[in-house]
Amino acid sequence: MKRRFLIPLTILIVLIVIFLAGILWFRENTKPVSSEEKKVAFIIPRGRSASQVGESLYEKGLIRSPLAFKFYVQLTGSSDKIQAGEFLLSPNLSLVEIVERFSQGPLELWVTIPEGLRREEVVERFVKGLEMDGEYATSFRSQFFTQSDGLEGKLFPDTYLFPRDASPSAVIAKMDANFENKIASISNKEILDEGYSVNQVVVMASILERETKTADERPVVAGILWKRLASTGWLLQADATLQYAIGTTNCKSPSTMLRTIDTSCNWWPILTKENLEINSPYNSYKFKALPPTPIANPGLSSLKAAFSPVDSSYWFYIHDAEGIIHYAETLSEHNENVRIYLGK
């Protein structure tokens, strides 16, 4: 009987020892790494898990144990409160204090700008991403439009890290500098030797961004559009240029600080037959030349395609309901593709 009693008692004692050892381990591993007060910029990219954040903190010498960090945020339900962005931390902060800093929100925030947006859409991404509202948001929009005038096409789509109070000029300068770096790395002298300027190539890239679905098809469509532009009797007939014109008219795109817009407006409307007749330099169904400015801000693959088009025997292209592209060499083939894939 005495032996049977001793076995569960021994197990209980072992469990208590393990529990106390765990408490001591946890307490030790949540202490500050050192007394050093030097600030360290710690950036959390989007999509990082609590485990990955803990590993990064450990590698930067800001916590004693990534396992203790993971355990603590799960125990307290803090993992969902860890936002992506930049934080200022120091080794003299305890693990608990670091998690508290994370829950207060970052000093800088990530803002992703997708390819193919026009200025009016770009600014709304920053207004939302930098958590602006009220008069501050209105002022940011006005300054952004004024200071980015003439830079449509050069506000390079990417993921950026900015402080909450970033100025429009700082945002624009960073996007434009990013664009210039990309252009310098891909510029193809061959297309420029044909008499086109870099700005015209950017205009073409902006059309490709809106007209195509994948990086693979862009060089082929670029070849078609450049070929049309250079050939007598051909028009570009790109829906995206006409959508830009209609969107600008319908949504009252601002050209000065005094004009306002409907931020919920559809900048890329579905076209009607009546739209084909509007008198606008952006109507590529009516005017042969490239539009006077880019219609959107193209990404890297569209810029590469515009600089390095692929020659082919095709003159036409359409996308079906699934977004798959279909090419044609003749108008009759194109009309048949329209009938088969679009039911028109």
How does this model look, in words?
There is one protein chain. Strands 1-2 form a two-stranded antiparallel ribbon. A two-stranded antiparallel sheet has the order 3-4. Strands 5-6 form a two-stranded antiparallel sheet. A hairpin with a 5-residue loop joins β5 and β6 (325-328). It has helices spanning 2-29, 50-59, 66-76, 95-103, 119-129, 134-147, 168-186, 189-193, 198-211, 218-230, 239-251, 300-307, 331-342, and strands spanning 40-44, 85-89, 108-112, 159-163, 316-319, 325-328. It folds into two domains: 29-106, Dna Ligase, domain 1 (2-Layer Sandwich); 119-312, no CATH class. The longest helix is centred in the first third of the chain and has 28 residues, at 2-29. α5 runs antiparallel to α6 and α9 (198-211) crosses α10 (218-230). The model is unreliable at 255-260 (pLDDT under 50). By secondary structure, the protein is mostly helical.
Helix content: 40-55%
The separation of the N and C termini measures 91 Å
| Uncertain spans | 255-260
How much of the sequence is in beta strands? 5-15%
* Count of DSSP H/I helices: 13
How can the largest sheet be summarized?
2 strands, antiparallel
Radius of gyration: 28 Å
Let me know the number of strands. Answer: 6
- Overall, the morphology is elongated
Number of domain units: 2
Lateral arrangement of strands in the main beta sheet:
1-2
Mean pLDDT: 88
The secondary-structure element order is HEHHEHEHHEHHHHHHEEH
